[in-house]
Design brief:
By secondary structure, the protein is mostly helical. Helix content is 63%, strand content 5%. Helix 4 runs antiparallel to helix 7. The radius of gyration is 24 Å and the shape is globular.
Length: 371
């Protein structure tokens, strides 16, 4: 990829793999630093960036950990859909821990401070987590499409769901592998400012930017356009099916639950698409050398990256807002209340102390299905 010109000069610096400006221009969320004066060097801007990244990391860690905890802790939350939601939460946790801290430090210091091993592993982990996220959203949409549109009474088993999750991680690892393989850690001297810096940059086989551009375009298709097209088609079909479905009163509650859950999951996808769209568009423009000479390229890139990272904590907020099971579970954790044995479809919960009454009630003690 062609290196960006982050200086305020006329842009006569040489392009190519040996150019020290070409550090992190790839699809993982890390970007080329600027060694000249730029707005990100202002103390106020740096404090704002630190606060924004720290808040997103904190909310992402807290929310996604709570989601995984609830699904693991409560038996009736262990449904196939919730397993896939847990897989999505795990990928978001990976983004929070292996993407954002490194990106923040790199943005502030303009140098790779983490050594040769992490030079290969961090971009790989970042790309891996993004692929797993979008594949998990796709799998959730296709599973609900299979069950609702085709009325397939037989749901996926736990064994099948775990095999599918393993498959998503395997495919994601293959797609992210080039970012670990075609990479180089070295030190570069910049005589003009008498500086020696550590560089972690892409190094494609033919030594040109063409391979990098091809990879970025491929990832745009595989990581964003194609999955969102499939997901959109699945949810449109589900929406049409549920809208036209006429159900007897005995099944009305079940139909309403399906509508609410589908609406929640579709909104998760919409938020993901909106958060990542500016980043993908700007990244593609960077690969095509259309925006690299913007004076505030680095700041714009960082802002779009922050917007993309917001998708890592919005999912738990959507679950808590639109699903009573998750909402009540979150509240119980924060209030340190007695842990319930299961949730019911309307989101209320029963503790062990009231189980005896439930067993003698009209439901016969059978806990209803969660999300």
């Amino acid at each position: 990829m062609s290196p960006p010109n982050t200086s305020n000069s006329s842009g006569e610096e040489e392009a190519g793999e040996n150019n020290p400006w070409n550090l992190f221009n790839d699809t993982t969320g890390l970007h080329p630093p600027g060694f000249h004066t730029d707005v990100t060097k202002h103390v106020g801007v740096q404090i704002t960036l630190i606060a924004a990244y720290s808040l997103i990391i904190l909310l992402g860690l807290l929310g996604n950990t709570l989601v995984i905890y609830m699904i693991v802790r409560y038996r009736n939350m262990r449904t196939v859909t919730n397993f896939f939601i847990a897989n999505l939460a795990l990928a978001d946790l990976l983004v929070n821990t292996l993407c954002m801290p490194f990106t923040l430090v790199y943005t502030l210091l303009d140098e790779w401070k983490f050594g040769a091993v992490l030079c290969h592993m961090v971009p790989f982990a970042q790309a891996l987590s993004v692929h797993v996220s979008i594949l998990s959203l796709t799998v959730i949409a296709l599973e609900r499409y299979r069950c609702i549109v085709f009325h397939l009474g037989r749901r996926l088993t736990w064994h099948s769901s775990f095999l599918i999750m393993a498959f998503t991680w395997t495919v994601s690892a293959v797609l992210a592998a080039p970012l670990a393989i075609f990479r180089e850690y070295r030190h570069e001297d910049i005589p003009s400012i008498n500086l020696r810096i550590a560089v972690c940059s892409e190094k494609w086989p033919r030594g040109t930017s063409r391979d990098g551009v091809i990879y970025s375009l491929s990832m745009l298709l595989l990581q964003y356009i194609i999955p969102l097209a499939v997901i959109s088609y699945a949810y449109i079909c589900i929406w049409v099916k549920l809208r036209n479905h006429i159900s007897p009163s005995s099944r009305k509650d079940s139909l309403n639950r399906r509508k609410k859950t589908t609406k929640m999951l579709a909104l998760v996808v919409v938020v993901f698409a909106i958060c990542w769209l500016p980043f993908h568009v700007f990244q593609l423009a960077s690969d095509l050398d259309l925006v690299l000479r913007f004076k505030e390229y680095k700041l714009i890139y960082t802002v779009f990256h922050i917007v993309a990272m917001c998708s890592t904590f919005t999912n738990p907020l959507l679950y808590g807002w639109m699903n009573k099971n998750y909402r009540n579970g979150f509240l119980m954790v924060f209030r340190c209340e007695d842990k319930p044995e299961f949730f019911n479809p309307e989101g209320s919960f029963r503790t062990r102390s009231t189980r005896g009454l439930t067993l003698n009630g009209r439901n016969g003690g059978h806990p209803p299905t969660a999300v």
